[in-house]
Amino acid sequence: MALDTLFYPKSVAVFGSAGEGKLANVLVNRLLDGGMDNVSIVNPKGLPVRAAKGYQSLLDVPGDVDMAVIAAPAKTVNGILEDCGKRGVKSAIIISSGFSEAGNKAGEEEIIATAKRHGIRFIGPNCAGMVCTQGNLVATLETAPPKGNIAIISQSGAVGGSFMALSAQFGVGISKFLSYGNGGDLTVLELLRYLKDDGDSKVIALYLESIPTGRKFMETVREVSAVKPVVIVKSGRSSSGQRAALSHTGSMAGADKVCDAALRQCGAIRVETLMDLFEICKAFAMMPAVKGRKLAIITNSGGPGVMTVDKAEEKGLLIPETSEEVKASLREYLPSFAGVRNPIDLTVEATGEQYGKAIEIALTERDCAIVLYIGTPYLKAMPVAEAVVAAARNSGKPVCAVMQVGVDIQESLIYLRDNGIPTYALGENAAAALATMANYEERRTAEGNIPCILDAGELGRAFKGGTNRLLEPEAMKLLGDNGITVPKFVFATNEEEAAKGAAKIGYPVVIKVVSPQIIHKSDCGGVKLNIENDEEAKSAFKHMREIAEGKDFRGVVIYPMLKMGREVIIGLTKDPTFGPLVAFGMGGVYTEVLKDITFRVAPIGKDEAGKMIREIKMYPLLRGVRGEAASDTEALAEMISQFSLLPLLYPDIQEADLNPVFLYERGACAADVRILGK
Amino acid sequence: MALDTLFYPKSVAVFGSAGEGKLANVLVNRLLDGGMDNVSIVNPKGLPVRAAKGYQSLLDVPGDVDMAVIAAPAKTVNGILEDCGKRGVKSAIIISSGFSEAGNKAGEEEIIATAKRHGIRFIGPNCAGMVCTQGNLVATLETAPPKGNIAIISQSGAVGGSFMALSAQFGVGISKFLSYGNGGDLTVLELLRYLKDDGDSKVIALYLESIPTGRKFMETVREVSAVKPVVIVKSGRSSSGQRAALSHTGSMAGADKVCDAALRQCGAIRVETLMDLFEICKAFAMMPAVKGRKLAIITNSGGPGVMTVDKAEEKGLLIPETSEEVKASLREYLPSFAGVRNPIDLTVEATGEQYGKAIEIALTERDCAIVLYIGTPYLKAMPVAEAVVAAARNSGKPVCAVMQVGVDIQESLIYLRDNGIPTYALGENAAAALATMANYEERRTAEGNIPCILDAGELGRAFKGGTNRLLEPEAMKLLGDNGITVPKFVFATNEEEAAKGAAKIGYPVVIKVVSPQIIHKSDCGGVKLNIENDEEAKSAFKHMREIAEGKDFRGVVIYPMLKMGREVIIGLTKDPTFGPLVAFGMGGVYTEVLKDITFRVAPIGKDEAGKMIREIKMYPLLRGVRGEAASDTEALAEMISQFSLLPLLYPDIQEADLNPVFLYERGACAADVRILGK
């Protein structure tokens, strides 16, 4: 693949001071200790470090050099890249700081141009380096992790380093670590695409403080998620958090609720903490897919079993009771006092063999299992660990284990891990991890549930409004032209037209004033209801003209009296990170007090719109409570989906509201509209 | 204190088989290894274990015996207790199972009676024993923990054992461990009261699967919580969890929402997992009280700082920006590129000295601090650890630390712990622990906020209803008699009375049918609104009599037409664990769809009722949104509090509803009522 020289170089030149404790010195040590044989170091004095010979210039280094690792002062980096170009070096890691993050944008642009000219791909500058365990490449100051199949990309070097420290501590291996720093050349998007096809990476962990290219990021994550899970910590959730992120990276973070919706929408798995990131990645890395929600819990003590059930149900797993048939087959192997329902409680006297049998038999009717072993400080856990490994292999299903207390508990935990069984400190953590895997698998295999995100450029049409707010009849026409149900309406510019229009609509009618200078029509008497005949229609027109006296009066718009329905709101807005968003809520106090509103990056299909409708808290109102008829959520989903296309069709639309939309047993109708342009 | 012989025996006799791996053998080993010098073992053959001499009967053991640890078969336990009585043994730990948990209630009653007769206090039977580290007593099969100041009481031996294993693993000490098993004599209540006054215990951890004596438990926890924190895991939250708890302990668990409210109400700190229990107890055990919400975060890298801020704000801590004055004094010690806002970011080059100064200076204007150190695998963390210890001591304020990555990270973590600084895996965990401590301190020091729970026995009055449902006028009278605002009303049994009554109320009035056999009055035309004069009143009476034809017709009740107000519901119900509960919600779809309803164990004072009102999701509606006037929440709190007294005043009341209560800008009125007796 295109980036292979970045990950699998055969020879590396490090740039920077060879002095003890200096970055380049440490990097050479890391590379040599990591198993890279061909390392040289370049610095003004040509000083060597261990087996790495020293040179004063890259041009002096004999043989091929595949990669440059640059930890030299910022002002020397461009020259180094020029030398790289001369020597045909194809990839670089620029650890040096002092570029755009420190206000030196010109310096960064210069090195980007130089690299481009020479066809050099690089990560950084201002990054913590990278690791490719399968390529024996440890080009970072952070902890060197064991070999494995979790890839991690981190916007923060420290967070990446902590993740690798966890990896080393718990023996759960890493395939690649990437710290992209300022992202001068290789961005998180390109790295993600590479990892998608990387056979050594089974799951991708991502730590982000900002998402600079919202929609492209979504599109990439959507593609990658279809192949392997992308687990993300996006920090800066709270107001102070956002302040801190701002001061740290100089980048703008979008509002967290929008970010959450966007990440969900493109199939990413968002978690909260570094530990969650590690625990969830460990599950994906070590277990086969969780193809269903039915969990078996096999334990030797009640309390931890109960706590595991609590968490598993909270997270959406099912703990089905054992069938009579399976109960009978369990009883063949288990003592009479063992519990065979679910949790299957083998009691404190359980042997390894009984654990093994219980796991295998329980998994004949469930999708995954958690094994809990809470021993005593004088009993051996290893027989149980061995039985878990064998039973998991035989079943072919995902199994994870919790082992607490035992004379050989540490060896047992290591034995499990080395034989592919992930271990967790608590059953609760194991349950959360399995639930996440079940959610991912369900989503990955569901058809067409991750909508394509259209590029505005493909569809852009001229926005028809002359002012920055469309007049009501213009806005209604635009809705109608785009397949959104609106009431019949007539625009009238004099009394005669008003009477004729009202008759055409059919009495009784509503008449509203139309003027770009009158926004809150009701407040100034600009809305007349229940107009019964031509006389009243003409009089209403006069009234409206009087109201608009001295203002830019354009006429009136005439509607039929609408039947009241359940009131909902559909809105459009633009997010600085993700662009056009569509919002849906119940309107009124529900939206205001409960914040019962949900977002998607626009546009979305009808299926996704249906999910929006179902995920608001007050959804049961639409489904019908207390014997009331259900509202037409099909028509509503259609309307949300159509409406969500507008900002793509008319890129000048900045904000829009249908408030209220009347929702009926059959159909839905946008009763009022507001569309704002640039 | 009364139970001191239980915790601090000078000599212990163990009962049971001396064979290798047998319980009594293990227990003797545990006791000897734990530092108990005077241990003997009693079994049929009189076999010894190590330094513990063997005897065939307790009567043969020379000298005083303070405590019996019984691991002999169930059927021998009563005889052993008789011998204990003869020898003046004052306390016992009965580990043997085979009593009420196995259906042998008679056996349990027998040993309870024998113990009582001899004045022997015991824990068990069917328990995992106990530990008193300060008394050198390790009378359990579970892990022996280091000495410290966390007391743990666990309904599950395995959970207690796991807790002690964590204690040993992380070097956070325990004062006492108590597994009370079936609670034949000493219950969790008596143990809690003992621990309240135990100078060695700074915080109490509690693992429960059921709360058998709900109100007494609350009263005890309330008393203990006023002195030291009680941190509780109550499992069996979910439906399957409740099933598992049932099969495990044979005890009935109340609904979790009620349990949650009850635990909060009595000042307990409820946490979810064993790990939370340990982490929160560690914080209380090692740090001084957190007397405010202002948190300082001192870090050397942005990412972990941001994630810590996210969690701290979510948990209700404040991350105030550094004042200009303090910024200036920070800048004296810190490099120019350090961030001085909050988090204070010392950057990767920070020295121990800079950490120390930053902590001390930051704490001059904050209540507590989290120190984050994310090093690299070749840098030393110890200078920072030393500085943290010194700065925390100088400040006298709570400080906890997170240290990740460094050549000497393990020693640094141990150094911190040994010098009283709790360490956490992540800043998020530290933030959650500090927030919990701040909440506890705020609650403990707030006056009168933990209401006294009255005993129904003190107040019980006869319930005035003859049937199991009070007639509406009876119920309204009962409300009125007890200080709850109801509409004026008249009960009329004939046409004349109806007309006279209506006139007395003042037209227009509402007339409702009164019959014990008509429950849904509106459905059968049993409610007439807007009655304008005597004529209509008489006619309404006739109509009601016709409706009730063939039923037990008692008459009609007459009300004025009430002004509509904001509708809320107040209810009473009985919980099997906690007894009478009072509920408050917004009524209608809010209660039905959103489950926007809150509970308290009754009775409660006006302050607590005010908290109920403020904690429902739709509270902003009552406070007034969109420029609407606020409702009279004072009057509402008064009504909830008065209503909550009813089940104590009239113990026959099983359930009651005021639905709706009309809430006005001034005042509140119970517009309809339903009271059910036994």
How is the topology of this model organized?
Two copies of one chain form a homodimer.
Chain A: H1 4-7, E1 11-15, H2 23-33, E2 38-42, E3 53-55, E4 67-70, H3 74-87, E5 91-94, H4 105-118, E6 121-123, E7 129-132, E8 137-140, E9 147-154, H5 157-170, E10 174-179, H6 188-196, E11 203-208, H7 214-225, E12 230-234, H8 239-249, H9 256-265, E13 269-271, H10 274-286, E14 295-299, H11 302-314, H12 324-333, E15 344-345, H13 352-363, E16 368-374, H14 382-395, E17 399-404, H15 409-418, H16 427-445, H17 456-459, H18 472-481, E18 490-492, H19 495-505, E19 509-514, E20 527-531, H20 534-547, E21 555-560, E22 566-575, E23 579-585, H21 588-594, E24 597-601, H22 606-615, H23 619-623, H24 633-649, E25 655-663, E26 668-670, E27 673-676
Parallel strand pairs in A: 1-2, 1-4, 2-3, 4-5, 5-6, 9-10, 9-11, 11-12, 12-13, 14-15, 14-16, 16-17
Antiparallel strand pairs in A: 7-8, 7-10, 18-21, 19-20, 19-21, 22-23, 22-25, 23-24, 25-26, 25-27
Helix pairs in contact in A: 3-4, 6-7, 10-16, 11-16, 12-13, 13-14, 14-15, 19-20, 22-24
Characterization of this structure:
Two copies of one chain form a homodimer. Chain A is of the alpha/beta class and 678 residues long. In chain A, the strands form five sheets. Chain A has a seven-stranded mixed beta sheet with strand order 8-7-10-9-11-12-13, sandwiched between helices. A six-stranded parallel beta sheet of chain A has the order 3-2-1-4-5-6, sandwiched between helices. In chain A, strand 11, helix 7 and strand 12 form a beta-alpha-beta unit. In chain A, helix 22 crosses helix 24. The first copy, chain A, is flat, with a radius of gyration of 32 Å. About 3% of the residues of chain A have low confidence. At the A-B interface, helix 5, helix 8, helix 11 and helix 21 of A face helix 5, helix 8, helix 11 and helix 21 of B.
